[in-house]
Amino acid sequence: MTFANITGWGKCLPPAVLSNDHLSTIMDTSDEWIHSRTGIKARRVSHVSCSALATLAARRALACAGLEASQLDGIILATATPGTLVPNGASAVQQALGAHKAAVFDLNAACTGFVYGLSVGTALVQTGMMKRVLIIGAERLTKLLDWAKRDTAVLFGDGAGAVIIEASEQESGLIANRLGCDGEAREILHIPDFGTDRERFAEIDGLFTFNFEGQEIFKRAVRGMGEATGAVLAQAGITPEQIDLIVPHQANLRIIETLAKRMDAPMEKVMVNIAQYGNTSAATVPIALCEALEQGRVKPNSYLLSAAFGAGLTWGAALIKWGDRVTPLALCDDELPPCQQTGLELIASAVAGCQQADRPR
Ligand code: UT7
C-alpha cells in the first residue's frame, strides 16, 4: 500500500502585530474580555497578499523536504480569502515558486480547509496520480473583517502554513480521516456579499456583511469535531491514550479544552498557539503543526490527531502517523518584504471605512 508521508513543513506569519489592547483603542472591547472568552492575546495583519504568505510558507516547506519546486506534481491552496478568484490563488504560488510541472487548485472549506486539503492530497498520492503534493493553508482574513463589529473583528488574523507529502511504502502520513458538513447551518457563518451573489451595480461601501452566530457555531464545532475524532480513532483502531499530540483548529481555547476533555486528554497533549495568532482559519492547523515540530513536540512515529470546523459548517478530523524525520533537511532564508507599518496602521483605512458605513444613514 502507498502512503503519503509528510516530509516538509513551513509557516509564514506576517510581522505586524495587532494586540487586544490595540483593538480596545478602536472598539468597545478589552484584553480581559477577549482573552477570557477566546484565549486570544494578539493576531497578525498582513501587508502582503494571501499568495505571498502561502508562497513563503511553501518555500520553507520545500527546503525542509530537500525538494525543488519543479519536483512538485500538485499544489492545493486551502483558503477562503484568495487574492483573486480568477485565476485561482494556487496559480500565483505556482508562478512564484516556478513549480511548472504542478497541477494547481484552490480548495475552500473555510477553517477546515487544511484538513480537507490533506485528505484530498493524500488520496491523489495513494491512487498513484501524483507523487509529491504541496498543501497550503493560507488566509488574509483581516481584509474581510468589519472593524465596527466587535463580536467578529477580535477573533481572526492572517498567516499561512504548508506541508509537503510524498509517496512512501512506510505507514505514515494521513492514515484515517472523516470529513463532513452541516449544510443546513450554512447561514450561521456567512459573508453573503463576497462572491457573484453580490449585486453587481449596487452602491458598494466596502462593507461585507458578516453573519455570525458565535454560540451556535461553538456548539456545532464541539459536536462536529468530537464526532469526527471518534470516527477516525475507531477507523484506525487507536485509543485516545495512544494519541501523542492533538493539533486542533485554533478558534477558541474553550472549544479546544472541551475537545481535549471529551477525549480525556490532558492539555499537555494539545498544541495551542491561539494566544499569539488568533483564528487564521485554514492556516491554524499547519502553523500549529509546524510549531509543534519546531518545539520538539513531535517524535518519530508519533500519532497526531487534528480536528477542525468552519464555515459551511464544514468539519473534519485527521489521524496522522508521523514518519522518521522530525527535523528539516534544510532551512530557507527568504523573508517577506519589510513592513513599515504597525498592525493598527495597516487596518486604519478599513477601520475608518467600517465606522463610516456603520453609521445610520
Ligand atoms: O473557526 C470558525 C469561526 N469561529 C467561531 O465561530 C468561534 C465560535 N464561537 C465562539 O468562540 C464564541 O461564541 C465567541 C468567542 C464568538 C463569543 O463568546 P460567547 O461567550 O459566546 O459570548 P456572547 O456572544 O454570548 O457574548 C457575551 C457578551 C454580549 O454582551 P451581553 O449581551 O451579554 O451584554 C456581547 O455583546 O459579550 C459581548 N461581546 C463583547 N464584549 C467585549 C461580544 N463581543 C465582545 C467583545 N468585547 N469583542
Automatic annotation (TrEMBL):
<feature type="active site">
    <location>
        <position position="279"/>
    </location>
</feature>
<keyword id="KW-0808">Transferase</keyword>
<comment type="subunit">
    <text>Homodimer.</text>
</comment>
<keyword id="KW-0276">Fatty acid metabolism</keyword>
<comment type="similarity">
    <text>Belongs to the thiolase-like superfamily. FabH family.</text>
</comment>
<feature type="domain" description="Beta-ketoacyl-[acyl-carrier-protein] synthase III C-terminal">
    <location>
        <begin position="233"/>
        <end position="322"/>
    </location>
</feature>
<keyword id="KW-0012">Acyltransferase</keyword>
<dbReference type="Pfam" id="PF08545">
    <property type="entry name" value="ACP_syn_III"/>
</dbReference>
<feature type="active site">
    <location>
        <position position="249"/>
    </location>
</feature>
<dbReference type="InterPro" id="IPR013747">
    <property type="entry name" value="ACP_syn_III_C"/>
</dbReference>
<dbReference type="InterPro" id="IPR016039">
    <property type="entry name" value="Thiolase-like"/>
</dbReference>
<feature type="domain" description="Beta-ketoacyl-[acyl-carrier-protein] synthase III N-terminal">
    <location>
        <begin position="105"/>
        <end position="183"/>
    </location>
</feature>
<keyword id="KW-0443">Lipid metabolism</keyword>
<keyword id="KW-0511">Multifunctional enzyme</keyword>
<keyword id="KW-0963">Cytoplasm</keyword>
<dbReference type="InterPro" id="IPR004655">
    <property type="entry name" value="FabH"/>
</dbReference>
<comment type="function">
    <text>Catalyzes the condensation reaction of fatty acid synthesis by the addition to an acyl acceptor of two carbons from malonyl-ACP. Catalyzes the first condensation reaction which initiates fatty acid synthesis and may therefore play a role in governing the total rate of fatty acid production. Possesses both acetoacetyl-ACP synthase and acetyl transacylase activities. Its substrate specificity determines the biosynthesis of branched-chain and/or straight-chain of fatty acids.</text>
</comment>
<dbReference type="Pfam" id="PF08541">
    <property type="entry name" value="ACP_syn_III_C"/>
</dbReference>
<dbReference type="InterPro" id="IPR013751">
    <property type="entry name" value="ACP_syn_III_N"/>
</dbReference>
<keyword id="KW-0275">Fatty acid biosynthesis</keyword>
<comment type="pathway">
    <text>Lipid metabolism; fatty acid biosynthesis.</text>
</comment>
<feature type="region of interest" description="ACP-binding">
    <location>
        <begin position="250"/>
        <end position="254"/>
    </location>
</feature>
<protein>
    <recommendedName>
        <fullName>Beta-ketoacyl-[acyl-carrier-protein] synthase III</fullName>
        <ecNumber>2.3.1.180</ecNumber>
    </recommendedName>
</protein>
<keyword id="KW-0444">Lipid biosynthesis</keyword>
<feature type="active site">
    <location>
        <position position="111"/>
    </location>
</feature>
